[in-house]
Description:
Radius of gyration: 68 Å
Largest sheet: 5 strands, antiparallel
Number of domains: 4
CATH superfamily of the largest domain: PAS domain
Bound molecules: adenosine-5'-diphosphate
Number of helices: 16
CATH architecture of the largest domain: 2-Layer Sandwich
CATH class of the largest domain: Alpha Beta
Amino acid sequence: MKKKIHFYQSINTKIVFIIVMLLVFALQIIGANFVTTMEQKLVGNFRGDRQTQMTFLKSTILPLLESDQSEEETETNPREEINRLLMEFSGSNITELQVVSPSMVIMGISDSTQQSMIGQLSNDADVRQAQLSGTSVTKQDLDPTSQDRRWKIVEPVYSSTDSEEFLGVIVLESNIETVYTQVSEITMTFLQASSVAIILSLILANLVARALTKPIKEMQIQTRAIAEGDYSGMLTVYGDDELGELAFLINELSDEVAEAQESIDSERRRLDSVLTHMTDGVIATDRRGKIVIVNNMAEKMLEVSGEEVNGNNLLKILGVEKELTLRRLLEEQEDILINAYSEGLPTILRASFSLIQRETGFISGIVCVLHDVTEQEKIEEERKQFVSNVSHELRTPLTSMRSYIEALADGAWQDPELAPRFLEVTQSETDRMIRMIQDLLHLSRIDSGKSDLEVELVDLTELLDHVLNRFDMLIHSTEYEGKHYRIDRNLLEEPVFVEMDTDRMIQVLDNIMNNALKYSPDGGVITGSMRQTAQSVIISITDQGMGIPKNDLVKIFSRFYRVDRARSRAMGGSGLGLAISKEVVEQHGGRIWAESAEGKGTTFYLSLPYIPFEEDEWA
Ligand code: ADP
């Protein structure tokens, strides 16, 4: 995701800011020190100069004051002399000079406009203080008229011979403002120079920062491109410094990520194609059981679409949320059977589960593999049914035989009337069991593919006629005395040669004919017909018997299936005849089926593949 970097957040700004701030601080410290030192120096110099002037003045005025005190007659008046000296004393910055006598009378003043003050009493507090303390007074204050700063020295003068003798006070006032003006001018110059330095450093810092951040910016763009899956770009390595090495490493990283991505992609493609072409359904979930991958087969098996189930709960999609919980699934991954519908047909799926586990044991998901076991389950069901049927079929005749044998053993063998009848029953039951076991063996041979056909080219018209003739004889035998059967023929005129195993085919036709008689208890007409189509010859045998309910029409070809168990068994049927017939016909590449109207009669059809010969071929 692209995140906007604000101006103030960028390294560029930070570098520039830091450099400029450092410079400003440095200038600030240097400037402050410099200005204070310079000010102290200049002010000190100024004051020192004034002190020198004062000392000079004092030494000049001292003899005049001494002579004024001695009251000796001199040619000149010392006071006038003092005043003249003051007025003539030239010194830069000196604004005023005064000499005050010990009695506080102003003896001389430098300012020519203030001459009237001479002879008057001084009211200067500093003069008084100097007089009283005997020491000089120095101070800086504001000139009351010009508001300039002034430096004032008030110096008491003592006699050179007697240091106790106080002669007067000299006052020196000077204008120190010029010194401060000078200081502020220098400060101003310094500030200007600093500003220029700051601006220059701003430009320079910007250039430096840019030089530093340019490769970083490029790296930023490149890493973003890598994150977005574009590995094509390469960074320029600008030098051997840390940034250069970083750029080099990013280039290497890009190569490696590209390679890793490539292998992940190809792995995924391989996985996808494996999943797509698998004949088993595969569903993968996250650790909460939410579906994340469904392959095509699973979609087909469960009749769902990927988009629709993604994110859904696995157990819900499998329809087993009532029987199975996620917790149990995580604890033990036992297989379960699921009833589903695929392409509208009910199917049975076996779902096997396994966990996706990390090395640490953390479970990150579940994989469910769906296998269509409809056919297996059907076969298994049939096998169970078959075993149960065989046991049942054998138990019934054996039970009845045992009871007859018991009766015989109990003494019936001596009964000349019962004994032969009982023995006859046991014999017929034994026969029936033998027949059944032979039928079963026959079926088992067909099932295991061991029953090969011994095919020959046979005229089907003749074969059918032969079978019908045999049954004609049978119905007119004593066995069927009192029953009215008739056999009609509706055969083809010409011979129809079909490749077949004659014995087996006779067995099939016998079975159908037997059933026709068996299930027509009131007699009736049995018609054997033949017809020919482009690819097959169809034999049909129609009776006028009890018929078969519609629902049972397909089932009668299953092993042991009988519409009316009791009646069929009573008639010696085992329920295997039609099953064997079906297998034999199918071995011949043909088909067998039945049509029936209950209470009216049944027709069995038997179609065999047949390609009619052209007359010319025989010629
Ligand atoms: P079975 O030995 O019991 O006759 P089959 O396999 O020959 O066994 O026949 C299966 C069942 O089909 C019979 O039990 C019977 O109920 C029914 N069936 C067969 N043929 C006919 C028919 N022609 N008319 C009525 N029902 C028939």
